[in-house]
Amino acid sequence: ASLVQEPTPAPLKYALSTLGLMLPHVRLPLVELTDPAKADVAMSMKVVCGGELPVAEATSAFLLQPSARTH
User: Fold this and answer.
1) pTM for the whole thing?
2) Is 8 helix (H, G, I), strand (E, B) or coil?
3) Helices first, then strands: H and E counts in the chain
4) pLDDT (tens digit, 0 to 9) for every residue of the chain, 71 residues total?
5) What sign results for the dihedral spanned by CA atoms 50, 53, 55, 56?
6) What CA–CA distance (Å, rounded) separates 4 from 7?
7) Which residue, among 54, 51, 35, 33, has the nearest Cα to 43 in the 3D structure?
């Protein structure tokens, strides 16, 4: 339910970022999630992932490399 509480892709992008699959940033005209919405999505992802989210630091560093970016 938390992924569809807002009519934008921002909740899905944030959910994927908790798994280290992408960065949570959105471009205008979209806006980032509020802190309560982020907490709700993170809680839902923890439930889906069995109580723990993977550490995303290494994946985020990979996503920041120029060769990994898509335009």
Assistant:
1) 0.66
2) coil
3) 3, 0
4) 666 677 788 888 888 888 888 888 888 888 888 888 888 888 888 888 877 766 554 444 555 555 544 54
5) positive
6) 7
7) 51
Residues 25, 28: Cα–Cα separation, whole Å: 10
Tokens describing residue 65? 């490399």
Structure tokens at 69: 């970016």
Contacts by 32-40, CB closer than 8 A, 24 or more apart? 33/6, 37/2, 37/5, 37/6, 37/11, 38/14, 40/2, 40/5
